[in-house]
């Protein structure tokens, strides 16, 4: 998920409902990908092995939404007000995910008689709560955000928002296109060097994450500014299937090039089509539900996933058992995310919004 970002933006009335729905579909795909990456360490055997590309879809969607919501008013509202709105929208779940990750660590980690390194744990928790990269924790694979690894994309989302507020919102479209071309070069270099565009989540692949967010976020801005919105009768289901297919692509000898093409061509096209697709009221409600669910699901599922990892490592269930475990586990995570949304995220955001200085 931004890198998961809300389509229902602050103080705006219009909603791109199909994009809401696609964001939810991508978030569920991320959950399935994380389940299966523990089952199949060889990512090429994972049926949804390209699920990590959902992050690039989120980044592009974020750029589109930020341009839609703020391009016309950030100059008048000011940078401080913009940052307040973004923090209120995003950070409550960052804090909760850090707490959940810490609890999951203590509950699930079999330390094998080793003494806890309290300094490492404490610093890692502070890092996770403040979304400051700190890849020092061996027990969590040296992830940038130790107690909620998927939050690495939120760090880059924050950085993209900062660059937008100070620079991107006011540059000309010509210069934006130039920046996009340079970011494509960086994306190609990252893919060629690593052979796969999964990087960004740990210290070693930090620059890969920078390349991924740079292109996709700016491309999303350009999509909105040029009004590249394509009227389509494909519908939500068809677009969802097309999105899912990009996560299920087989792996090739030039796999990285396939991923670059998906990021540079397919995702901007899907967003343009989704923005121009209208749905009836019933499908619209489904899309809104998926959109509301996507961010809490993305931010909370990884803490619960560690319980599955412990179970799988200990019992090695058969394939038929895995089907029910993964399916049931995904439903549990969706239910938990919905509970978090209703009981914690929405009430807290309403409270913070009502108490912040100067509504915009």
Features:
12 helices, disordered N terminus, globular, mainly alpha
Low-confidence spans: pLDDT under 50, at least 5 residues? 1-13
Q: Mean pLDDT, as a whole number?
A: 92
- Count helical runs: 12
Q: Roughly how much helix do the residues carry, as a percent range?
A: 55-70%
Q: What is the subunit organization of this protein?
A: single chain
For the record, give the distance between the C-alpha atoms at the N and C termini, rounded to a whole number: 27 Å
Number of E-type strands: 0
The ordered string of helix (H) and strand (E) elements is HHHHHHHHHHHH
- Taking all Cα atoms into account, the compactness measure Rg is 20 Å
The percent range for strand residues is under 5%
| Shape call | globular
The main pleated sheet reads as: none
**Class by SSE composition:** mainly alpha
Return the domain count.
1
Written overview of the protein:
This protein is an all-alpha fold and 360 residues long. It has one domain (17-355). Helix content is 69%, strand content 0%. The chain is built from 12 helices and no strands. The protein has helices spanning 17-39, 54-70, 74-77, 79-108, 118-130, 152-166, 173-194, 206-225, 235-247, 255-275, 281-315, 319-355. Helix 2 (54-70) runs parallel beside helix 10, helix 4 (79-108) packs parallel to helix 11 (281-315) and helix 7 (173-194) runs antiparallel to helix 10. The longest helix is centred in the C-terminal third of the chain and has 37 residues, at 319-355.
């Amino acid at each position: 998920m931004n890198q998961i970002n809300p389509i229902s933006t602050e103080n705006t009335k219009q909603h791109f409902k199909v994009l809401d729905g696609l964001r939810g579909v991508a978030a569920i795909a991320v959950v399935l990908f994380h389940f299966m990456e523990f089952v199949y360490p060889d990512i090429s055997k994972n049926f949804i092995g390209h699920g990590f590309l959902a992050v690039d879809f989120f980044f592009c969607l974020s750029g589109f939404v930020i341009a839609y919501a703020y391009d016309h008013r950030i100059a008048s509202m000011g940078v401080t007000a913009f940052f307040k709105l973004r923090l209120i929208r995003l950070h409550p779940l960052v804090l909760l995910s850090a707490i959940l990750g810490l609890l999951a660590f203590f509950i699930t980690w079999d330390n094998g008689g080793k003494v806890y390194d309290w300094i490492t744990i404490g610093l890692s928790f502070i890092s996770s709560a403040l979304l400051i990269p700190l890849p020092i924790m061996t027990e969590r694979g040296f992830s940038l955000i130790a107690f909620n690894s998927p939050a690495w994309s939120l760090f880059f989302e924050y950085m993209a928002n900062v660059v937008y507020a100070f620079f991107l919102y006011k540059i000309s479209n010509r210069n934006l296109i130039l920046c996009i071309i340079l970011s494509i070069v960086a994306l190609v270099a990252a893919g060629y060097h690593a052979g796969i565009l999964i990087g960004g989540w740990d210290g070693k692949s930090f620059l890969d994450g920078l390349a991924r967010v740079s292109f996709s976020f700016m491309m999303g801005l350009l999509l909105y500014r040029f009004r590249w919105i394509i009227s389509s009768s494909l519908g939500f289901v068809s677009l969802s299937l097309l999105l899912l297919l990009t996560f299920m692509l087989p792996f090739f000898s030039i796999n990285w090039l396939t991923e670059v093409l998906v990021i540079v061509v397919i995702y901007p096209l899907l967003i343009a089509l989704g923005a121009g697709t209208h749905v009836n009221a019933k499908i619209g409600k489904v899309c809104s539900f998926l959109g509301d669910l996507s961010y809490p699901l993305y931010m909370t599922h990884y803490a619960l996933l560690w319980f599955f990892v412990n179970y799988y490592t200990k019992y090695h269930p058969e394939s038929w058992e895995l089907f029910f475990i993964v399916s049931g586990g995904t439903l549990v995570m969706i239910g938990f995310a919905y509970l978090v949304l209703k009981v914690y995220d929405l009430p807290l955001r309403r409270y913070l919004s009502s108490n912040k200085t100067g509504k915009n």
